[in-house]
Amino acid sequence: MQDRSTAVRSRPSCGLINSPDNGREIVFAEYGASEIFSLRSLSWSEGPEAPFFHSAGTAQLDDSFVIVGGWDGTNYTDTLYAFDEVGYGWVQLPQRLRTAREMPGVIALSADIGINC
What we know:
Layout: E1 13-19, E2 23-30, E3 33-38, E4 43-46, E5 57-61, E6 64-68, E7 77-84, E8 89-101
Antiparallel strand pairs: 1-2, 2-3, 3-4, 5-6, 6-7, 7-8
């Protein structure tokens, strides 16, 4: 893999994972690809194929994160994807945004908080 330490990225989505094998890592994703920066080895590696999007919102969720909405090159999207830190891949969630959005603001709330957004 080429040196990604100085690579230019255009509105990637990113989140922190706690991998059982590799410890804490930052996953960057956009345009159908992902890259992973290891906080243990301070090095880059190629990540799993990602859904094709950019400018999505992200929210940290336990040992992983969720990507929300974005732009697929033609349209805004209403999809949600979680990164599976154990299986090292993307899982599309059944939930959808009510309105497709690019760069949405996102926060994670506990289900027991009693708010229905």
